[in-house]
Write a structure and sequence with these properties.
Chain A is α+β, with helices and mostly antiparallel strands. Chain A is 39% helix and 21% strand. Chain A contains twelve helices and nine strands. The radius of gyration of chain A is 26 Å and the shape is globular. The chains are: A alpha+beta, B alpha+beta. Chain B: Its main location: nucleus.
């Protein structure tokens, strides 16, 4: 059997946790009922791999089929790996009426024109996301299925999410995407994270945002249970105010889980007590990185507890507002300066 | 009784003046009772204390004090003098306190009076405003020309205030019927618009926009999904000059989107025999797979909603293995039905007619 198939299958079985293996294989539906029943999922991974290899040989499955299985697994678990968001710019007139079959054909033809050996698989998920798996080869070698790139796009939106793309492959993919979606350019959206669902929710505004309303707080119930009449919070008013401002800046409820925010400063050094630094002509280069398991939640909490001053500084509130977590700050104006 | 004090100027022996200086206390059983009586002692009474049957004897109280016995007991005299001074001082303090208290109360009275005047003026303005509002509303209803006579500053201001309340009520009514609502934020420098969407008498999502009004009209924050072309709409409808037109168009887009999304949801819920082959996030394209009963032929139906401000499709396309089916009169009727009725309702009719399973 083909070596690549073996390696791919081995790697895949190692990656998929045992408890999800059964459901994934069922979804794949390339195995007959008897074959599925013959697999004992309590065996070790090595034994399972051997068993599956045997079955695949029996069914004469090729690398394309294994790639399908991998795609099913990745679609079910989109929060692994590192995802980067890109934004399509300047739509042409027919960008809004691009439909799936048209997009699929166009993308495949454009990419195949740009690079001779490439394996493309496109699948539409139930939540309207179009998933594309690309295995890259070049003029001389076959596509490498061990390092595929995954692309996720929602038609009629300007956002594309990419994972595992090298700098050599980037211009080729960009061109194919731009041509098939009928836009004119694509640029980096400066948003990245481990969880696809988080960066997608942030850009598609699928989390709960708070806006000023006529009646900001709910009506107090008549039989409100006061925890302890003898305890009075002296700063209840200002605490409520801070909480409101923090929620308006970041959102309410569960927030999309970002892992980091990076600020790259290219501003002039501004401390008059330090002459050597201020006398330099070049801007002061500095990188500030905030890291957390749930960055937006920590920022919101720091604003509502008073650690960060309220109203929330635009440097922090830009993360959800602009949907970016990489900022370059230069000296072009007063205040938080221009942020690219 | 005669005042026995030496050098007492009053020679009156029976008049009340002399007697007013004389105080009597009732005494019996050795205890003072009945308080101090400053006139003629009352006739001896029976003690009112329960169980006691003694008669009360009235004895001149200040006999010893007023006897002016200076040499007799000097300590007593000094002490009594001191106690007199103490009493005098205390009464002076209470007098002072009373004076400052009086001034406080007077000031409070003044403050309350001015407050009352203010409230009266407010009530008057409110009444004038209401009268003016009634007149204005009637004018609007009758479409008469406004009476632009020479008005004083006050009445101009009043007219402006009445117009303001009229607009606020109009906005509130607009919000109640499912239109958008605007509130002021950041002390007039910004506004927040909330656009409600509804379909078939059911309220769906609410979308919000925060707008900066100064220096230019600009959208600062919103929760409108990216497939609604917000920036395009802002440019096309000239948001800077005509905010209302922009908001009306945006509201149409959002309501139509919510309506189409709701139709898709109902099709998926209520018509399980119809398979949804394709849809998109904007709900501007829908491809459904019908099964004709009895023959079990499949019919693919494509609904294009190219006008994003409408809930009905602009184009219906049918395809089938049976090439003649789309041209049959029954299916031509179904085509028109799908163009004119919302899809979830059209499917009910088609099922009743037996076109689809």
């Amino acid at each position: 059997m083909d070596n690549t198939v073996k390696r791919l299958l081995e790697r895949l079985v190692r990656r998929i946790p045992s408890r999800m293996l059964k459901t994934t294989l069922d979804k794949w539906s390339r195995l007959t009922a008897t074959q599925r029943q013959s697999i004992d999922y309590t065996e070790s991974k090595w034994a399972l791999t051997e068993k599956l290899l045997a079955i695949c040989e029996e069914n004469e499955l090729t690398v394309k089929h294994i790639a399908e299985l991998e795609m099913i697994h990745v679609i079910e678990n989109p929060n692994l790996g590192m995802w980067h968001a890109f934004q399509l710019m300047d739509p042409q007139d027919d960008a809004h009426s691009v439909e799936l079959t048209q997009f699929k054909e166009q993308f495949k033809s454009h990419l195949s024109e740009l690079i001779r050996h490439v394996s493309i698989k496109i699948k539409k998920h139930t939540d309207e996301a179009v998933w594309i798996r690309i295995a890259w080869g070049d003029t001389f070698s076959r596509p490498n299925h061990l390092k595929p790139t995954y692309v996720v796009h929602y038609l009629q939106t300007p956002y594309v999410f990419l994972s595992s793309l090298t700098s050599k492959q980037k211009p080729l993919l960009s061109q194919a995407l731009v041509l098939s979606t009928r836009y004119q350019a694509i640029k980096d959206a400066n948003l990245s994270g481990r969880k696809l669902t988080a960066i997608r929710d942030l850009l598609m505004k699928q989390y709960l945002q708070v806006f000023p309303t006529k009646f900001p707080s709910p009506l107090a119930e008549r039989n409100r249970v006061v925890s302890n009449l003898h305890i009075e919070k002296e700063q209840a008013g200002s605490a409520a105010n801070r909480h409101q401002m923090a929620c308006e800046a970041f959102g309410d409820g569960l927030l999309p889980q970002l892992q980091s925010a990076v600020y790259k400063l290219e501003t002039k050094f501004r401390d008059h007590t330090n002459k050597t630094m201020t006398e330099r002509d070049e801007p002061f280069r500095c990188v500030v990185k905030f890291a957390s398991t749930n960055l937006l939640e920590s920022l919101r909490h720091s604003a509502s507890s008073g650690v960060a001053s309220t109203p929330v500084t635009p440097l922090l509130s830009s993360v959800p507002l602009k949907g970016k977590n990489y900022f370059v700050i230069t000296d072009n104006g007063p205040g938080p300066s221009s942020q690219k | 009784m005669v005042c026995e004090r030496k050098q007492c100027a009053s020679g009156d022996r029976t008049g009340t003046t002399a007697l007013s200086r004389v105080t009597f206390t009732g005494q019996h059983c050795g205890y003072p009772v009945g308080g101090v009586v400053t006139q003629q002692p009352p006739k001896s009474k029976t003690c009112k204390r329960s169980g006691c049957l003694h008669r009360i004897k009235y004895v001149q109280k200040n006999k010893e004090k007023d006897s002016g016995n200076m040499e007799g007991a000097p300590a007593k005299g000094v002490l009594s003098h001191l106690s007199l001074l103490e009493v005098k001082a205390r009464s002076r303090k209470t007098q002072l306190q009373q004076q400052s208290r009086v001034m406080e109360l007077k000031a409070k009275v003044e403050a309350l009076k001015t407050q009352r005047e203010q409230l009266k003026a407010q009530i008057q303005t409110h009444q004038d405003l209401q009268k003016l509002r009634l007149a204005m509303d009637k004018q609007c209803a009758d479409e008469e020309e406004e009476n632009m006579e020479e008005e004083s500053e006050n009445s101009k201001l009043l007219r402006l205030m009445a117009r303001h309340t009229q607009l606020k009520d109009l906005l509130h009514a607009h919000h109640l019927i499912g239109g958008y609502d605007i509130i002021k934020t950041r002390k007039g420098k910004g506004a927040c618009v909330s656009i409600a969407t509804a379909y078939e008498d059911v309220f769906l999502d609410t979308f919000n926009l925060e707008i900066d009004l100064k220096p230019t009209v600009k959208i600062s924050r919103h929760n409108i999904p990216p497939f609604i072309p917000l920036n395009n709409l802002a440019e096309q409808n000239n948001m800077q000059t005509d905010l209302r037109v922009f908001l009306d168009t945006l509201s149409k887009h959002l309501n139509a989107f919510a309506g189409r999304k709701q139709q898709l949801k109902l099709v998926k819920e209520k018509h399980k025999s119809v398979e949804v082959m394709e849809s998109n996030v904007l709900c501007s394209l829908l491809v459904l797979l019908f099964t004709v009963p009895r023959e079990k032929t499949a019919v693919l139906c494509t609904l294009d909603y190219t006008d994003h401000t409408r809930c009905l499709p602009t184009r219906v396309h049918l395809e089938s293995e049976d090439k003649q089916l789309p041209d049959s009169p029954q299916w031509k009727k179904n085509c028109t039905l799908l163009m004119e009725t919302p899809v979830h309702k059209a499917l009910i009719t088609m099922k009743k007619m037996g076109s689809i399973a």
